[in-house]
Automatic annotation (TrEMBL):
PANTHER family xrefs: MITOCHONDRIAL RIBOSOMAL PROTEIN S5 (PTHR48277)
Species the sequence originates in: Candidatus Gottesmanbacteria bacterium RBG_16_37_8
Pfam families linked: Ribosomal_S5 (PF00333), Ribosomal_S5_C (PF03719)
Annotated protein name in UniProt: Small ribosomal subunit protein uS5
One cellular component (GO) term of this entry: small ribosomal subunit
GO biological-process terms attached to the record: translation
Length: 149
């Protein structure tokens, strides 16, 4: 893959799924991958395949094709945002320099991949990692990038 050094990949969750068939159980994997360049671009992809490596590749490819740009103002986000997606509710608040990333596991991974250095977040809904990743991604999509000109 070209651009492998440009983006950082992080596997968030690996789910083993199985389907009942007449010949027995068909086992597969569902993997959530976050891709980011730590400069304001981040993507999330869900890959499903019969083995882990193929599922990671599929998720990574999807994430790279669906990148979003996140506006970063003085190493943090422009304003506070509360996002509800399904059962997941995520609150993101800008923080002064030196605060660091105060966020729980899956939310932290998305924010680190985006390149945000100072932020405070709170997961208010479910503790399902996949739901929280998608809610955080939707919250970051809400920010509009202003063009100077």
């Amino acid at each position: 893959m070209n651009g492998n050094n440009e983006f950082n990949e992080k596997v968030i969750s690996v789910n083993r799924v199985s389907k009942k068939t007449t010949g027995g159980n068909k086992i597969g994997f569902s993997i959530l991958v976050i891709v980011g360049d730590k400069k304001g671009r981040v993507g999330v992809g869900l890959g499903k395949a019969g083995d882990v490596s193929k599922a990671i590749k599929k998720g990574s490819t999807y994430a790279r094709k669906h990148l979003i740009n996140v506006p970063i103002v003085n190493t943090t986000i422009p304003h506070q945002v509360l996002m509800k997606q399904g059962a997941a509710i995520v609150l993101l608040k800008p923080a002064p320099p030196g605060t660091g990333i105060r966020a729980g596991g899956s939310v932290r991974a998305v924010l680190e991949a985006a390149g945000i250095k100072n932020i405070v977040s709170k997961i208010l809904g479910t503790d399902n990692q996949t739901s929280n990743v998608y809610a955080t991604f939707a919250a970051l999509k809400k920010f509009k990038i202003k063009n100077n000109g």
